Structures are given as C-alpha cells and as structure tokens.
C-alpha cells in the first residue's frame, strides 16, 4: 500500500496535470482568437495529452488501491502579449512540471514506493521530450520574428500534430 504522504503527492500531481490541460486549452483559445489555427490545434493536442497524464496517475492509484482525491483546478491565464509569448509560457509550465515530477520521484524513493518509482520513470522521460519540443517551438518563433510568411509556415507546421496514443489504454481499471 502506498504511504499517505505518497498518495497526497500523487493527488497533487493529478491536479497539476489537470491544471496543465486546462492552461493549454486556454492558450489554444487565445490562438484561435488570433486566427493562428495551427498553433491552436497544437495546444489543444497538448491539452489532451496533459489530460491523459492526469488519468495515467489516476489509474495507477486506483490499481494500487490508493485513494484518489480530486481537487479544485485553478483558473488559467486567459490573455497573452503575443503568440510567441504563449509558447514561452508553455515552456515555463513544462519546466515547472518537470521540477514537480523530480520532487515526487525523490519522495517515492525515500518512502520506498517502488511501484510509484517505475510509474514516475515514464513521466521523467515524457518531461524530457515535452521540454525539448516546447524549447524547439520557442526557438523557431525567435527565428521567424515578425516575418508574416515564415509565421504562416510555422503555424501550418504546428497544424500537422497528430494525437498522442493514450498511455493508459490497455491498463487495468480503464
Ligand atoms: Fe504532463 Fe507536460 O506535463
């Protein structure tokens, strides 16, 4: 059985992932309003992915007979200075999620929660990927600056993002 302190921390992480999902959806809505449909699409896909991350931890807890406690989700930011600013904030968010996952891993290690360590290893790899992707997009926006045709190309590139496979599919309890 997972210790109470690990259960509390996992519930907190479920909330963080749901907040990320909500925040990405607000970013997507902002891009829609600015007619950057490709950016909006990419961010909506990311919102879906964050939702899956929350459900991955949820499923893990259910499978370990832990008590899931869903908490209030904070209101996201609904306005940005510009489209590049949206992606800078996305990168900041990913760095913060990585920091939280690292702390959670450290706690699970101290608590000898070995099954949780295995579960969290997936998240550590995922965060490495997500940070890199967000950093790449920020770098591209810096490169194109205000060149309209390059911005349109970048928006078109982001429109091609395919949905990720659900990491909880096939797991017991889903
Ligand atoms: Fe699930 Fe991008 O943090």
Polypeptide structure, described:
74% of the residues lie in helices and 0% in strands. The chain is mainly α. It is elongated. The structure holds MU-OXO-diiron. Residues 17, 20, 50, 53, 94, 97, 130 line the site of MU-OXO-diiron (FEO).
What keywords describe this structure?
binds MU-OXO-diiron, mainly alpha, 174 residues, Ferritin, 5 helices
Could you give a quick summary of the protein structure above?
With 174 residues, the protein is mainly alpha-helical.
SSE layout:
Elements: H1 4-33, H2 37-63, H3 83-110, H4 114-144, H5 148-159
The structure holds MU-OXO-diiron.
Could you name the CATH topology?
Answer: Ferritin
Broad structural category = mainly alpha
Which H/E pattern describes the elements? HHHHH
Count the DSSP helices.
Answer: 5
CATH class: Mainly Alpha
The major β-sheet equals: none
Per CATH, which architecture? Up-down Bundle
> What is the number of strand segments?
0
Low-confidence segments, given as residue ranges, are none
Strand content: under 5%
**Rg (C-alpha, Å):** 17 Å
Please identify which CATH superfamily we are dealing with: Ferritin, core subunit, four-helix bundle
**Which outline best applies?**
elongated
Ligands (ions, cofactors included)? MU-OXO-diiron
> What is the arithmetic mean of pLDDT?
95
Q: What is the terminal-to-terminal distance?
A: 20 Å
How many structural domains does the protein architecture include?
Answer: 1
Helical residues, percent? over 70%
